[in-house]
Design goal:
Number of strands: 0
Keywords: Signal
Largest sheet: none
Mean pLDDT: 75
Low-confidence stretches: none
Structural class: mainly alpha
Order of helices and strands: HHHHH
Protein name: Secreted protein
Oligomer: single chain
Helix content: over 70%
Shape: elongated
């Protein structure tokens, strides 16, 4: 049995990440009108953390689109090879999107709570891992060795999922 095509793995991983993010928050929301009351109610325990995760979902599009564009271009190119200019442009766009999304994570400052510092550290580490994977993909897509592109693409997907998980605080 051979290895599944990278495109199929990539789309499956991205769909699973998006599905988990979207459906997880849908189950957390209760929109039944018969439960609505006119009296003030206490917030749901842990609501702040869930709302932070829900708000993070908006950043996924910012990160996913440029990375998807890069992977599409590389995986559809003849033997996974791009021109140096095209690879540089696509990787720069992906890194800019990653940096923009990572900047929305809680700051790892001294006044921040332990959870916020830990999440910020996780996001920073995940960003560095993804940046390194993007560099590896850029090199593979311009070196002339199509076999390296597959491994580098897997590295980008793994790094992307790590970043998305860290942004959600998982």
């Amino acid at each position: 049995m051979g290895v599944p095509p990278v495109r199929r793995i990539a789309s499956t991983a991205l769909c699973a990440a998006l599905l988990a993010g979207v459906t997880g928050t849908a189950f957390a929301a209760d929109s039944t009108p018969e439960r609505t009351q006119a009296t003030a109610q206490a917030p749901v325990p842990g609501a702040d953390k869930v709302l932070t995760q829900v708000n993070s979902l908006g950043h996924f599009g910012t990160v996913l689109e440029p990375v998807k564009t890069l992977l599409d271009a590389v995986l559809k190119a003849d033997k996974g090879q791009l021109s140096a200019d095209q690879a540089t442009k696509l990787v720069k766009a992906a890194k800019d999107a990653v940096a923009k999304a990572a900047a929305t994570a809680p700051a790892a400052s001294a006044p921040a709570g332990g959870d916020a510092r830990a999440q910020a550290d996780n996001v920073k580490e995940a960003q560095a891992t993804l940046d390194k994977a993007l560099d590896t993909l850029q090199k593979a897509s311009t070196d002339g060795d199509g076999d390296q592109v597959t491994g580098a693409s897997h590295g980008v997907l793994s790094g992307l999922l790590g970043l998305l998980a860290s942004l959600l605080g998982l």
